[in-house]
Amino acid sequence: MDSAVVIAMARERGFDVHALSVRYGQRHTSELDAAARIARELGAVAHKTVHVDLGSIGGSALTDTSIDVPLDDDGHAIGVDAAKNTIPVTYVPARNTIMLSIALGWAEVLGAADLFCGVNAVDYSGYPDCRPEFVEAFERLANLATKAGVEGAGLRVHAPLQHLSKADIVREGVRLGVDFSQTVSCYRADEAGRACGHCDACRLRADGFTAAGIPDVTRYV
Amino acid sequence: MDSAVVIAMARERGFDVHALSVRYGQRHTSELDAAARIARELGAVAHKTVHVDLGSIGGSALTDTSIDVPLDDDGHAIGVDAAKNTIPVTYVPARNTIMLSIALGWAEVLGAADLFCGVNAVDYSGYPDCRPEFVEAFERLANLATKAGVEGAGLRVHAPLQHLSKADIVREGVRLGVDFSQTVSCYRADEAGRACGHCDACRLRADGFTAAGIPDVTRYV
Known about the structure:
Shape of chain A: globular
Radius of gyration of chain A: 17 Å
Distance between the termini of chain A: 18 Å
Oligomer: homodimer
Order of helices and strands of chain A: HEHEHEHHEHH
CATH topology of chain A: Rossmann fold
Largest sheet of chain A: 2 strands, parallel
CATH class of chain A: Alpha Beta
Number of strands of chain A: 4
């Protein structure tokens, strides 16, 4: 849902959107199928999926089948405890660094100077690569790593959801006409993109609809 | 050859080496086959190849088959003109950013705090992501992007070839026992890893042996 809202926000600001999905070894691909469909519906000029097999380096329950997505005694996924500032096993090592790097490569090819990403500091405080300091450091790197940086035009990394709550994101999406019934957030979605309703991602998302006072249109199993 | 010398230098400094190759859509894979063999011979604990299909974003003669490696009237590849500070078409968009990002992910999984890369500012001044500012910016990013950064232990990015000439690299490799007949630098190597002798990479490499006063053991076609 975050990525969809980012596309809608970039479109509203007048950008031609080239949308990138990265398949990094996720257990399911329904999220990627949904991304292609949503990008088209929101008026993106192009959508590409780049594959990087992070499963081969392991370390995350999302890509390493030897690590279980953690569940509590009732069979529900154990939530991210932001208050403890711990990093959950669903963290994918260096995920946002890798995804932004690939986006940077495509931006160079396109001659694009603006990268948008859906990182959000409020709901995911257990993930170091969602913080504003990370985004700023990546922008600095991008300007040293590329032709656009060397030749002086400069690149910007936009993270328009950075300081929004999940409820704010839901409201912004509804305002911009995003069809949230099509977006897939669940870590364990089935092939049709239907959500489990129990994992961290499902709970954060459902809480967002509740807090925004907007009916949850998510398709659950 | 640069990567092989970096492994030997890290081993000399007492590190347990986990060597990473990234298959980013190169036209040939003999370089990767050679990397696995050389890593083993130089005493690396492990070697992995991670695939990322940069060919799908295009933009480089190394990954995009619609762009030719440029040749002069005699059929020789046109060299990098460092004096002009132009960026050659053999530049792969964001390549070092992407490769270091994947290395960072693996380092997180391993609990490793030291990343080594073979970037070199002297011979490749046309490539923005080979400069010391880039390496420093990546180290800063790595410390903001990861558990090791958040939890305070810190990561270091080493680029021990940074200020060495190609001749220095050849001499250092010979001193450390690197078998340069096994290393593949050529952009257009054949399946057996034999070099064309004409592309930028071949000419820089041959010049390095000449300048070092060391016989060129490269296997040419």
